[in-house]
Each structure stands twice: as C-alpha cells, then as structure tokens.
Amino acid sequence: MKKPDDILPPTGSTKVLTGRGLESFSMDEGGHLNLILEAIGNAQEGYLIMQLEASSGPGKILHINQSFCRMTGYVLEELTGKDSSLLWQGPSLVSFLKALRAIIADNQPAIRQLVCHRKDGSSFWAELEVVPLDKADRGKKIWVGILHDISDRKQMEQTLVESQMRLNGLLNSLSDLVWSMDVDQEHFIYLNPAAQRIFGYPVEDFFHNPKLWRSIIQPEDRDAATAAFDQILTTGGFEIDYRIVRSDGEVRWLRNKAHVICDPDGKPLHVDGLANDITSHKSVEARMERMANFPQFNPNPIYELTAEGELTYFNEPAGVLAKALGAEKVEDILPSETNKIVIECLRTGQSKLRVELPYGDRTISWSFFPIPNTKIIHCYAGEITERIRLEAQLRQSEKLKSVGQLAGGVAHDFNNILTIIQGFTNLLLSRQDFDDDAIDQLKQVAAAANKAADLTKQLLMFSRRQVLQTKNFNLNLVVTDLAKMLERLLGEDIHLTVKSPDGDVPIEADQGMLEQVVVNLSSNARDAMPRGGVLNLIIRKVEISATTASQHPDARPGLFACLTAVDTGFGMDRQTISRVFEPFFTTKLPGKGTGLGLSTVYGIVKQHEGWVVVESELGKGTTFNIYLPLAKVAVSIPQGEAQEKKPLGGTETILVVEDEAPVRVLLRSILQSVGYKIIEAKHGLEALRMWDEHRNEIDMLLTDLVMPGTINGIDLADRLLSDEPELKVIYSSGYSADVVGEKMSFDAGTNFLPKPYTPAQLLRLVRSSLDAKS
Predict the structure, then answer these.
(1) pLDDT tens per residue, range 651-699
(2) Cα first-last separation, the chain
(3) Model-level pTM?
(4) 298-383 CATH pick, 2.50.20.10, 3.90.1170.30, 3.30.450.20, 3.20.20.70
C-alpha cells in the first residue's frame, strides 16, 4: 500500500490525482490537505474522508488511513470511491444516515456509536466522530470521520449491565431487606422489594416518606432503635433487634444491621443496611428459653437419665425432695428398679407412668419418659401422700354414702312397721278389759318398739333422710344450756369445760339434731375415758382457706362455725378412724353400745351441709372438729311455755292419704275413736278425687310425703291449698329424700309428724293444728 504522501498532488496544485481517491479537490488553501493527510496517516485512530452526495445515498469514501485499514481489513484501493454502506450495513444504517446528514447540515462535530463490518464479515463496535469540513463542491459535502474501536469498552459495559441485572435479580429475590440511605437519613437511595413483604407497605411509600420506617417501630422499642440510627455516624454502624407493626397490625421482629460507607478520605457517603424478619427465630428463642426454664423453675422434681440409668441432671426441687426424705444423694431416692425401667422404656419407646413407692409415711410417684431419637430418659417425681389421703377420705365418704342409702331405706320401711306396732299397742293399752299380765306384755312390746324407733331414727340421721326443722339460733347458748345435763352424763370423774367467744355464733339448723350431736360426742368421749379425764367443748368462728379446704373432700373455703370436742381418752389408730362413722361399727364390748352414736353425728352434720374432721392418736386422745355454715343473724331461743291441757278429740273431717293399708287402718282407728270423721285415699290422684267430692267438708289434710304415682305429699298439699288457703295440713313420713331432696327441711311452722309416732303424739298435733290460727 502506498503512503498517504504518494496520493497527494504537488504543492500549489489545484487538482488531486485522479484514481487515487480524491477527485478535482482544489487546494486553494495552499496545501493544507497534504498536511491533513500526513497527520491522519500516522494517527492511531482510524480516519476516513467522506463525500456526502446531495442525494439521499450514503456517500463515497475519498480516503482512509492505515489504522482504518487495520480495523476493517480493507486496503485503500478496495474502498476508494466506494459506497460507505459497505462498512455499516444493517438496520441501523437508515437512522445513522439521517443523523449524519443532520450533523453535516448543522456543521457541528458529533459522535455516534455504530457497528462496523470488516472485510471478513465480522463486525465490531465503533465510535465515529463526524467532523464536517467547511467545503462543498457542487453540493457535495466533505466530512472527516475518526473511528475508535470500542468493542472492549462495549464488552465491559455489557458485562456491567449483565452483572447489574444479575445483582438486581439477586436483590429482588432476597427475603432479607437491603437498603441504602443518605448520610443525613433524609431519603432512601435504594430499597429492594423485600421491604413490602416485611412491612406490608409499598416500597414507594418509603421513598416518599423516609420517616415511615421509624414510625412503625413498636413504641416500646422505638427509643433504642432511634438512638441507634441517630448515633450511626459516631458508632460507624449498629446491629439491633426491635419490633415493627405491619400495615395489617401484625407485630414482627426485625434484626437491622447497618454501616456507614465512606470515600478514600474517610468522608461518609451513605448508609447501607441489611434487615431481616426474625419473628420465627425469636419465637424459637422464646420457646427454647421456656424449655430451658421448664426444668429449672418447675416446682416438681425433674431428672435426666442416660441409657445406663446414670443421673446426669436434676433440678432444685429434686434436691429438696432427697433432703426431705433423708437421703445424702439425689440418686439415692430413685426407684431400685430404675435401670430396668430405663432399658424397657428405650427398647419399647413407651413411657412408664406412676411407679408409686413408699418412703416411710410418705409416698412418691415416679414417671419415666423416653426422649425420641435419643438415648435419654426424662423422669418426673411427685409426692402423692396428700392425694392418697384425700382419695382414702373420698372412698370413705362414698362408702358412708352407700351405707347411708341402705340404712335410710331400711329405716323407712321399719318406721312404717313400727308405727303400726306402736299405734295398735297403745290402742290396746288404752282398753280396760286386759288383765295385768296382758298389760305388762303389751308394755314390753311398746318399750321394744320405742327402742327400735330410736334405732331407726339414728339410722335416718346417719343417712341424712331425717326431715329438718331448722331455725336460726346461737350455738353458744345451745351448748352452754346442755352443759349441766352433760355433766350428769359424763359423771364425776370427767371434767367438762365449755369455751365460747364473747359474740354470737349464729347457725341455721335443727336444734334438736344439733343437741343430739353434742350429746353423742360427749357420750363417745366418756366411753373413751373410763378412768376419768377432761372433755373440752370449744365453739368458735373459723376462716377456712382454699388451701385448708383442699385437704378434705367435703370442705370449702369461707367463714364457718366450728364445734370442737377434745378428750384425753384412749385415742384411735388409723384403721379405726377410717371406720369410726360406719353404722354399727364399735370398739366397745358387746352390749355396751349400738355403734350408731358417731354415725348419727356424721349424718346430722352432713345434712346441715357441714363436715367432720377427726384427729386422733393412740394414747393421746381424740379431737372432733364439726364445721357448720354460719347464719347471718342468730335468733334467741324462746323459753318453753307450759302447755295447757286440751281435749285431744274433735268433730272435724280429716282427709287421710297413706299408701300403707295397715297405717291407714291405724289412723282411722285412732282418729275415729276421739270423734273425728275420716276420708281415706291410697295415693295422690285418689286424694284429688276425694277433694273434688268433699271439698266443703274437709278441714285437714294428713298426708304421707312419699307415695306411689306422680303426686307426692307436698304436691298434693300445694294443690289443695291453692283451692282452700285455710286448709290445715300435717305431713308424715319415715323419711323424705325422694320428695324434698338431700336437704330435707320445712319452713318454720310446718306441721310434721315423723314416723313412728304414738296415738297421743298424733292426736296432740292434729288438735293443735286445727286450733292454730291461720
């Protein structure tokens, strides 16, 4: 290839050599072109001189330098006079030519980037600097192009773009929040999409309002987090956990790490940070903390054992239990078969529960649990001494209840029988046609019937089937009034003391039954002190706590009246205490007692919704604590008035309702013998029919409480009283559990005739009821 100087005309020539790439190019400028060609010939950049036709064509190449040839692979002769589209073909050619003409028309240099094609068909990225020359020949514009190969730079840019795209993709896919703020924290520079997932707010909201971030920090954590942000230029960074409140109100934990980015001179440029949602992590931490605290702060003894049964851990209560049981080491109280239990639990994967072992007078329950996927056994221990005691008390209570149901049923049937025996015996005794022997025999029958009646009465008291006739009174007065009688009962060898508070101890109870309780307790104490001793009766108000109440199955918290009987007698062992309230159970010699005294006490107290606690030890006496509900106000007990003798007969009409035929016969005989008119009914429905027929004749209803059918005595009386409020009513029964329920009581003034009864008792109650004012 010829040097550029070879194609230039002689100095001063006005025409360029034809066929050498420059046609008729005038050198009026005095050889300046030669200088231009010499300069571009040695340049490292690719130079070309182009002539842009007036038409829309791309123009022709006038000259190129060696660097241009090296870039494209062409030689000068191959491109001189050729169309420039040979170099930059493709879809961008049209836009390039349009831009080129605009540049030349403006006569201002400009730079364009385009793809150039080499001779071998390959291409490269080039930057073309277009320099228009202020020279035109018949409408042909001349311009110089300076070509730079920017393929490497373009490759780097592409690589950077691809890297940025990959980085953006990575940042966009991160679950963690990536953020950047200016050093003044006045606006965000960058936030990835995780911001919306974590906070629930659109990312744009944070760009519009940079303070939004701080405003959604949980108020309790806001001061600490704000301080960390405000001091970051001093500290250089922070790592802090705090809670945020999402847009939906959900509270989440955030761990935020930040550091200050500085230039080489140490000047802060911006603050970059990484935040991630650690709510689940915090939940696990809290759970792990709870799990770690569980054995440490558990009030129950906990142990950890290896597969060989070796103790590797125990908590403080386990040590306390070992010390309480008198063991030097904690492992000394483990069950002797612990190794065997551990092996079996690990082999089967099944727990071993409630291994109960006695330690003196205490009982410990052990449970062993294999931990899955480990060779570790967790063992839990608990003292069940109190539970066993309460279970025994509950079983005893249930046993007494069952016995009471049986006793009550038997007593009810016996009362009907005894009513007949007593009634007819007394009728026979009232006759004058018997000799003395017959009368003595009848008296023996009557005495035996009375004795049997007393027994059935006690059975009813024990079974809680006795009807209560309650009123409010002061327990102090009742016990104090009984003192003189009790002194005679106890004898000269036993010293009785009664201790009571200054104020009233009001209760609502059946006075006669409560007196029976005091008498029976005193009698029991007397029998326990055959050589004399001391009996203390103590009345007081006591506050029962929930803890104390939990120690007895019948107890409950609250304020109660307490009657305590303390003797200095023989005392009892545990086995005797467990049976002391059973009917007919006695430790006395045959013929010395019926075994119903304490069972009667138990039944009366239970029927009054109270409970009894017994404390005793052989050789150290016995204490009975009777707990009864307090009444709000005590009513003074009226003194008995001398009863005026009144005639027992009359001419009134009485409706007698009794399902037992012999009892009806007895009632008819007694009442008719003194002048009363009798209308009989077997049950409630028949009584209603009799009422409809004889309503205007009937003055009194005498009804049994428990009767067959759907109408009992109380229901019958209620119906008749609704028709005739002035009607007199007497209720009678051996017991009334089926009618009145567990608490059998009538309002004050209700006429009740308990079976068995004598003819005199019946006639007195009938006459007084008929004579009483409504």
Answers:
(1) 999 999 998 888 888 888 889 989 999 999 999 999 999 999 999 999 9
(2) 153
(3) 0.39
(4) 3.30.450.20
